[in-house]
Amino acid sequence: FDPSIPPAKLSRRDLRAVAELIKSGACKNVVFMVGAGISTAAGIPDFRSPETGLYSNLARLELPRPEAVFDISYFREDPRAFYALAQELWPGKFKPTMTHVFMRMFADRGLLLRCFTQNIDTLELAAGIPRDKIVFAHGSFAGQHCIDCMEEFDRKTLEEHVRSGTPAFCACGGLVKPDITFFGEALPPEFHGSLHLLEEADLAIVMGSSLSVYPFAALPQRIEEGVPRLLMNMEKVGEIGSRRDDVAWIGECDDGVRELAEQLGWWEEMEGIWKGL
Ligand code: CNA
């Protein structure tokens, strides 16, 4: 890709040009693809940021390797590490960020086709994005089942177990786990059932993901050629920047979102929504 080639849909490769495109009314089917980086400002560590990331904080759990906390075979062997982590991440403790509120603004205006999230914190729901506009690609804390007989388990009982750090067992003797997809498990049907929507997108925004977990990491490539793709992340990731109408903006997503929202005249409304959450 030759960067001297001008973009086709955008006037320039920057945030202002993306805001102009949205303002022009050309984007009616916006797709977001997000990861742990959109929730770090809420106080939830991501996986891979050095020192502050979850993996670097897992040492005290004495895991054979950090990823084991989300490994289904390790969970069967010793579920305590996951339960300790679930205690930290249990929904209700954290407030959505302005980036979550920004996505809700698209939903409120009927412009959100889907928010594909790798996050399990359910802050998208807490921000007021309708459930049917969210694809929880790696599951979430919203449900819980036995890993053997797949029977649903009582929410309140699991919550008590998570709070005390003691694993919950189903009547059949199997371990209970929230519906978070572990390494070694299939992704939820809603993920595969929503992939076709990527072809309908007229703007794609990727935020706060290292794009290192597949198959999610390949989603941006499924956006049709010619459709603008915006990356807002602390580091350059994936292949965004390889097409004419790609914008790669490096920094904290809340800052990028603020710049975009101010251009769109949405910022004050967003602050009001955030205060009310
Ligand atoms: P990751 O691999 O930890 O990558 C996070 C990315 O976000 C990195 O590229 C960071 O540079 C970037 N980043 C961090 N903070 C910011 C910020 N403020 N603004 C912009 N960019 C930032 O996380 P991924 O989501 O890519 O990895 C996929 C895993 C992480 C999924 O399976 C998730 O379930 C899992 N995860 C989720 C949560 C959560 O639910 N909040 C927390 C930690 C991990």
Note down, in words, how this protein is organized.
- With 277 residues, the chain is of the alpha/beta class.
- It is built from nine helices and eight strands.
- Strand 2, helix 5 and strand 3 form a beta-alpha-beta unit.
- Helix 1 crosses helix 8 and helix 4 crosses helix 9.
- The longest helix has 12 residues.
- The chain is elongated, with a radius of gyration of 19 Å.
- The mean pLDDT is 93.
- The structure holds carba-nicotinamide-adenine-dinucleotide (CNA).
- The site of carba-nicotinamide-adenine-dinucleotide has 29 residues, from loops.
- GO terms for molecular function: histone deacetylase activity, NAD-dependent; NAD+ binding; zinc ion binding.
- Its cofactor is Zn(2+).
- One of its GO terms (cellular component) is nucleus.
Topology:
Blueprint: H1 15-23, E1 30-34, H2 72-77, H3 80-89, H4 98-108, E2 112-117, H5 123-126, E3 134-136, E4 139-146, H6 155-164, E5 176-180, H7 189-194, E6 203-207, E7 229-233, E8 246-250, H8 253-264, H9 267-276
Parallel strand pairs: 1-2, 1-6, 2-3, 6-7, 7-8
Antiparallel strand pairs: 4-5
Helix pairs in contact: 1-8, 3-6, 4-9
The protein binds carba-nicotinamide-adenine-dinucleotide.
